[in-house]
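*** Query protein ***
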Amino acid sequence: MIKDAVHKTLAVLACSSLLAACASHNSPSAVDAPGAAKKPLTQALESGADLMQGHPPIAALNAYLDGFHFYNGHPQAQMEAHHYCSILNEEVIQCVIYDGNLKDAKLMGVEYIISARLFAGLPAEEKQLWHSHVHEVKSGQLIAPGIPEPAEHALMQKLVGTYGKTWHTWHTDQQKTLPLGVPQLMMGFTADGQIEPGRVAERDKRFGVDSEAKKRDRQDIPAPAIDPGADAWQRGKVFQIPDPTGSHRHGATP
């Protein structure tokens, strides 16, 4: 087991190069938002604000992870998710999720990631909203594009025992050009054969990575026992916010 200090050091080194490295692996947004083009005044205001205002919370989003989610209760409704994360401390990470990694990317949702220790202290009802990360890491589906393999390996060793709570607010995978409807709870895959192989292959080609090779390389990462309260969808306990607007094809509770 790598000591926490080494984990932290490697994670920091990884984060410092993640955002710059991802720029060469373009993933455009799934939709174009309606609206008139920016006027010169708007562009000037935008440039001025960028120069004169600080952005500490945004600057803290220095780790980039790419993986896959599905709508809770509808594992066939799958999408790629670009996570831009801030490591708050050794046990809490917060991420904003986009549908791409270019300037036109749409803010798709958020994910909160906590340690196994913190997760163990949650009420049983709360645990049902969270998913484990063991399979995402061990399968090679979760990647940190662009950083050296040793740094990514250490980062994955840190993430393998964590739990995530994810809400999507803009469903661009359903070609929603605006954030319509209500937030939907998302989950992560827990076993081989659940995700569409072509989805992973297309992502791997775009980023120039090999998920199967990563799976082999991560065999030495211990797979911790998963808290039985997580991944509740596997036990038929599916929670989803009912959508009175009828905007979702897949998001409503079955």
About this structure: The first helix runs from residue 4 to 21. The radius of gyration is 18 Å. The mean pLDDT is 87.
